Amino acid sequence: MTYMSQEGYDKMIAELQRLESIERPKASAAIAEARDKGDLSENSEYDAAKEAQAHLEDKINRLKMSIAEAKIVDTSRLSSDAVQIMSKVEMTNLTTKAKMTYTIVSENEANLREGKISIKTPIAQGLLNKKVGDEVEIQIPRGTIRLRIDNISI
């Protein structure tokens, strides 16, 4: 089961519809076009089109599985007392004094450019269940990072 926001769920549904209604017909057309070019045993275009179709079908199936396993989080029932999934956490790096803000989301919704980190990342794991004012030391690939939680919101 994967917990996610309604927005993240809606994006997955839209992506699935796009793949099935636009990309799948394109892949079929590419295969048909390559097939029309003659001998399939020496037709690299045909092989490439078939491989692209297989990747597309795999992506569609993984997306369907994620949608089936999705559990939408009712944000109105969440508390900002402690860090949890869907929490927006404002913090300070105690070493560099840099301020950062991340929203903790499911793996499918993670997007660093939007400030959304996966609940499975070391930083999110280190912040879970912590409260405003707590200072945490988190092991990340580059070493240890010291953070102070300044604010938690939903």
Description:
The chain is an alpha/beta fold and 154 residues long. Helix content is 40%, strand content 25%. The protein has three helices and seven strands, in the order βααββββαββ. Strands 5-4-3-7-6 form a five-stranded mixed beta sheet. Strands 1-2 form a two-stranded parallel sheet. The longest helix has 30 residues. The protein is elongated. The two termini are 21 Å apart. The mean pLDDT is 91.
What structural class should be given to the helix and strand makeup? alpha/beta
Helix content: 40-55%
Q: How big a fraction of the residues is strand? A: 25-35%
> Averaged pLDDT, please?
91
Query: What ranges have pLDDT less than 50 throughout 5 or more consecutive residues?
Result: none
N/C terminus separation:
21 Å
Written as H for each helix and E for each strand, in order along the chain, the element string is EHHEEEEHEE
Keywords:
3 helices, five-stranded mixed sheet, single chain, 154 residues, two-stranded parallel ribbon, alpha/beta, 25% strand, 7 strands
In short:
By secondary structure, the protein is of the alpha/beta class. The chain is built from three helices and seven strands; from the N terminus they run βααββββαββ.
Secondary-structure map:
Elements: E1 2-4, H1 6-35, H2 44-69, E2 70-72, E3 88-93, E4 99-105, E5 116-118, H3 122-127, E6 135-140, E7 143-153
